[in-house]
């Protein structure tokens, strides 16, 4: 019995598994839900919605046809050593997830552009000084990673009259954005990025891509916002760049180790804003609708949407 006959989904997501199950029941009643580890007969299960699956999860699931990621990133699936190699993996691409990430990044771009981090520090000292304000048209924001999230952010930045440059691994035009790509494009991209926003996925080629050498390529007094993955940034190099004033300030939502260890110097650094990986959180009502539409579409002959190219990691 396959998805086209009767879809049976296994959930192993976050602490909202029951909420996911209830939402699926409202949106696609024909979908039967099992919540890990209570799988019942494993042979019944033909699809799964997952985040950070334990290796044993796949042991007896012989009839899986598709895997859905609860988040925009899929590294929590691709790093699982028992992930079946021939099963399509569908990325989460839904409006609320995208909107949340755009909101987080816009907030921090505006905060740095308007020097709010400096005014916050002045307030803590009861110190009154106006600081020069410049228009958005004189600020260049670099968006590193031009997938669904990066393109959505770029469109909003352009609407606010920022200059926008983008970086991706391969060549592709994006409206309103000057795009740099590949190894040769990295230095010219970074040299233009007065505010650098990281939205790249975690792959073997992106690990600690932002390090002492690449941080030195940024303009003087640049800002960094990491809402992509924690291992994109060499945290020791980032702190050093802030301490020697190569970098003006940073906003970090993701970290090499999560939760961020209490011993990390990042916690107390006066020019780092720390948030606990809340840049965007998948919203069950819209996410379940996206998955339901994908399942119904597949039942009627459509391909799975937004599938991952496992060789590239996204």
Could you explain how this protein is built, in words?
The structure is a single chain. The protein has helices at 17-27, 75-78, 95-113, 116-124, 148-159, 182-192, 212-215, 235-243, 284-299; strands at 8-12, 32-35, 47-50, 66-69, 89-90, 140-144, 163-168, 178-181, 195-198, 222-226, 247-252, 272-274. The chain is of the alpha/beta class. The protein folds into two domains: 8-94 and 282-299, NAD(P)-binding Rossmann-like Domain (Rossmann fold); 95-274, Rossmann fold (3-Layer(aba) Sandwich), CATH 3.40.50.720. The longest helix has 19 residues, at 95-113. It is elongated and about 70 Å long.
Approximate helicity band: 25-40%
> How many structural domains can be distinguished in the coordinates?
2
Order of helices and strands: EHEEEHEHHEHEEHEHEHEEH
Percent in strands: 15-25%
CATH homologous superfamily (4th level) name of the largest domain: NAD(P)-binding Rossmann-like Domain
Topology:
Blueprint: E1 8-12, H1 17-27, E2 32-35, E3 47-50, E4 66-69, H2 75-78, E5 89-90, H3 95-113, H4 116-124, E6 140-144, H5 148-159, E7 163-168, E8 178-181, H6 182-192, E9 195-198, H7 212-215, E10 222-226, H8 235-243, E11 247-252, E12 272-274, H9 284-299
Helix pairs in contact: 1-9, 3-5
């Amino acid at each position: 019995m396959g998805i086209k006959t009767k879809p049976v989904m296994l959930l192993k997501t976050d602490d909202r598994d029951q909420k996911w199950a209830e939402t699926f029941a409202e949106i696609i009643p024909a979908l039967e839900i099992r919540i890990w580890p209570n799988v019942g007969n494993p042979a019944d299960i033909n699809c799964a919605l997952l985040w950070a699956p334990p290796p044993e999860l796949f042991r007896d699931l012989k009839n899986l046809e598709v895997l859905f990621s609860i988040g925009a990133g899929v590294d929590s699936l691709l790093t699982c050593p028992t992930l079946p190699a021939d099963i399509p993996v569908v990325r989460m691409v839904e409006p609320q997830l995208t909107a949340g990430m755009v909101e987080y990044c816009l907030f921090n771009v505006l905060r740095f552009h308007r020097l709010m981090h400096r005014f916050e520090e002045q307030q803590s000292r009861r110190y009154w000084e106006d600081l020069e304000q410049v228009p958005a048209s004189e600020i260049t924001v670099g968006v590193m990673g031009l997938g669904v999230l990066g393109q959505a952010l770029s469109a909003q930045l352009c609407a606010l009259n920022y200059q926008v440059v983008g970086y991706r691994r391969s060549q592709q035009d994006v409206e309103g954005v000057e795009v740099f790509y590949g190894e040769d494009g990295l230095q010219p991209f970074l040299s233009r990025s007065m505010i650098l926003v990281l939205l790249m996925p975690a792959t073997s080629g992106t690990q600690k891509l932002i390090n002492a050498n690449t941080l030195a390529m940024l303009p003087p007094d640049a800002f960094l916002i990491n809402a992509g993955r924690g291992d994109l940034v060499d945290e020791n190099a980032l702190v050093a760049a802030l301490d020697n004033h190569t970098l003006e300030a940073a906003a970090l939502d993701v970290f090499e180790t999560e939760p961020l260890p209490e011993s990390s110097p990042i916690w107390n650094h006066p020019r780092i804003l720390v948030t606990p990986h809340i840049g965007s959180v998948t919203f069950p009502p819209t996410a379940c609708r996206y998955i339901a539409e994908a399942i119904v579409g597949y039942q009627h002959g459509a391909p799975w949407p937004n599938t991952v190219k496992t060789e590239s990691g996204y």
